[in-house]
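Instructor's aside before we start: the two examples that follow are unrelated to each other. I chose them only because their records fit on one page, so don't look for a connection. First example below.
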Amino acid sequence: PSGCGKSTMLRIIAGLIRPSTGRVRIGARDVSATPARERRVGMVFQNYALFPHMTVSENIGYGLSSLPRSERDARVAQLLSLVRLAEFGNRLPRQLSGGQQQRVAVARALAPRPSILLLDEPFAALDRALRADMQFEFVRLQRELGITTILVTHDQEEAQAVADNLIVMNGGCLEQAGSPAELYDAPKSLFVNTFVGQASVLHATVEAGGTLLRLRSGEALRLPTPIRFVDGAKVVLAVRPEHVNLQPVALAGSVRARLLLSVPQGPMLFHDLVLADGTALKAAAPREPRSPRPPEGADLHVSFALDHCRIYPAP
């Protein structure tokens, strides 16, 4: 989330901020006392920080002044081709689109052949469609180069789309690290569960030797397997929208809900509901054009795929 220390961590790795404790290692090198210019780190800032009076080629070659002219020109041409801007070398940054400027900034960071690439919310200034295109382009580029890359973002969908490994930070601390699938399917804390993707939070009390959850409304949910909480323990059940099923009639294990709003988003239909005790609940299901949609305000019943839901101690 905003303010958790993501950009600060990136600047510590780059050598722009000195950490108060701890050490920074890149590969086998301890660079804690190494000046930023000697760390072999490439960094792309959120606003790209291109020089407006320089051409695209001059921007990319800015950090290559120590090379012979022919070698510098060859390196710039190679990078222009890599980021698919070969015909734009003589243009100024203001003559480029946001996505093209972003690619120039990446090429400039790559020009000195860094050992690691750092990106601070590089797609934040782009519109939604262009952002999605640039995410695919970035993954292609990163895999082609094989360079270790750390990308900071507060957009969970973006993180899951581009990353092999995710680190979720909260209040300056590492909350959980793992693959996108691990963090989505097996979040270790309520914070990660509700931050990575969406989840509704239902408060409950444990009963019957850990086999039953009693909701605040008095309704009970029978668990598929017992949980390791003592009877009477206060817990929260985190339920992702796709694990909620809507039903027009009561079935075993279902609870009452009222439909407040239904919103189509592409192939999915998202529902805002409220349970009998006032708890907000979100549900999602594939949109079926020929299936009748329940009217807003309708009283329904919902059940949960409890084997996919997560249970945590109440905060």
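Example two begins here.
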Amino acid sequence: GPLTNHGTVAWTDGVFYIQSTNAVVNAIDGVWEVQGDLTLTSSSCGSPTFTNVGLLRKTAGTGAMTVASCVALSNTGTLELQSGALAVQAPAGLTNSGQVTVGAGTTFYLAGVTLESGSTFSGTGTLRMNGTTTVTGDLTVPVPVLLEGTVTGAGKLTLAAAMTWTVGTVSLAGGLEVGAAQTLTVSTSNQHVLIGPLTNHGTVAWTDGVFYI
């Protein structure tokens, strides 16, 4: 059945299953605290959902909190990584139009993540695009990015921090823009495929690999 939180959920251990088509809602006044490298999943995969309107944060554990492939995560509130990593698995994935904070030394794995208009970012951790990341609006990202998959969509991605592109495809209708004083590093011997415009106001350091336009 449904679970709605207006207080605090302190998740310290164990696997959390959302069964069938049931929904968890962390309300605007709710705090959902993940105190370890824990997994949110479902054994029935009947399109369960987890909606965060409040604060969803990971405060402990050097590994990842994992949102399994059949749980659809939606964030219009704040996702905050204080420790370890957050890994969201496709195909259900994450739809985000809220705030994402990646603290120092943390990693947010963006496989199966849709970044909509309204998405904002902060912190000195890493956004690791290791699958397919879809950008639907015009976004400015002031957080270091590692691209080793595909970033696609109708939007535009403006880099206000460093980005390292090791392999994969940038296919953005609005294009990729390197902000002033920022560096895009194109590295490794892999293929780097660009579909759509790239505008550079900073530095592109092309150290290795094939660049396809």
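The radius of gyration is 17 Å.
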